[in-house]
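Bit of a strange request maybe. I'm writing a small parser for C-alpha cell strings and I need a real example to test against, not something I typed by hand. Could someone generate the C-alpha cells for this chain?
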Amino acid sequence: MSNKTEKQLSDRVARTTFTEDMKKDYTILVPDMLPIHFNLIIKAYEHFGFKMELLTNRSRVVIDEGLKNTHNDTCYPALLVIGQFMEALKSGRYDVNKVALLISQTGGGCRASNYIYLIRKAIATEFPQVPVISLNFSGLEPNPAFPMTLPIVTRLIYCVMYGDMLMLLYNQCKPYEINKNSTDELLARWQHRIGKLMGDKTKFMKTKSIYRAMLKDFAALPRTKEKKPRVGIVGEIYVKYSPLANNDLNNFLMSEGCEPNVPGLLDFVLYCASDLVNDARLYDKVTARTHAYRIGYDVLYKFQKEQIRVINEQGEFFPPHDFEELRKAADKYMNQGVKMGEGWLITAEMAALAESGTENIICTQPFGCLPNHIVAKGMSRRIKEAYPNANIVAIDYDPGATKVNQENRIKLMLANARKPE
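Reply from user aminoacidic:
Good idea to test on real output. This should exercise your parser:
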C-alpha cells in the first residue's frame, strides 16, 4: 500500500449513525444560528418524538475550542459551530453516550456543506460514539432514523415563515417598547403557541389568521412614537443571524438607539430554490429535480406574497421585501448565476434596503469568505453610486477580531446614520 493511500485511509473518520433506538432517549444538540426560528423547529420536532436543545453558550471558551479543533483555514462559522459542540460535549452537562449533534447542509458550493465532516473529525478522538446528523433537503446524507417526511418538511417551512414574522415584529417593536421586556415576553408566548400548533395536523397551516393574531398582539404593545435610525443587517447567513457570531449585533444596535432590519430566512430558502431553476436555464439542462424546485419556489413565493399582503392590510408594520423584487434588484448589478455562498442575494438585499429607505446597512462577513467579500464589500461602491445616501459598512468577524473594534466601526457608521422619513 502506498504512503498516499495510507494517509487517505488515516484521514477518514468513521460515521456513527443515529439509529431508531437512539430516538427515544438521546438529546440532539442544535447550534445557535437563528434563536427564534430554531426554537420553533425544535418544538416542531418534539411532536415527532425527537428531543432537541438549542446551544446558547456564547463565551470565549467556544472560540477557543473551535481554534483547538479546526485548522487555521476554517471559516469562522464552522469554527464557532465546532467550538460550540465541543464545549457542550466537554462541559459535563450532557451524557455523551446519549447525545447527538445536528448540522444543516445546503449542498451548494460554500464550505458549509462540508462542516459535517469537520465536526466528525473534531469529535473523533474524544467522542467517537456521538452521531452527527445532517439536516438537508438535497439527499446529501439520508438517515432513516431522521427522515425528511412530508409532515416534517411542511412544518419546517411553516417554522421559517412564522419565525420570519416574529423576528420582523420583534425588531419593529423592541426598540420602542415602553414597558421593559414586554416585547420579549410576547415573543416567548407566541413561540410557545406556535410550538403547540405544530402538534395539530392542520391548525398550523392557517397562516392568515395566525399572522393577523400576531400583528394584533404586537400592535397592542405600548410603544413610543419616536423614529429611530433603521439599520439593515445583511451578509453571510450564519454571521448575519447568529448572536454568537456577530457579538449580539441586534441588541447592540438597539442599545445604540437604532431599529434593526434583518431580512428573513425565507429569502435564503427562495434563493436556493431559484438557483437550481436558474441552473437549468444557464446550462440548458432540465431534470425532474428542476421541475420539483420550480414548483417548490412557486409555492414558497406564494406564501411570501400572502405574508406581505396581510402585513400591508394591517398597516402598522413594514413588510419584508418581495423576493421577485430582490431578483430585479440583483439584475441591476450582477447575473443571478453568481451563486457561491449567499451570492447575488447579498447585493440584492443591500440594494433593496437602500431603495426602500433603510439606507444604513451593516454587511457582516467572516474574514476570508471570498464569495461574501466579492458580492458584498465588492459591490458596496456600485450601490452607493446608485444610492448616494447609502451608508454601508462591512464588518469582518473572526477569532482575532475584537468586539471593541467592531463596535467602534459600527458607532462611526451610526454617527452618519439617517432616520427614516
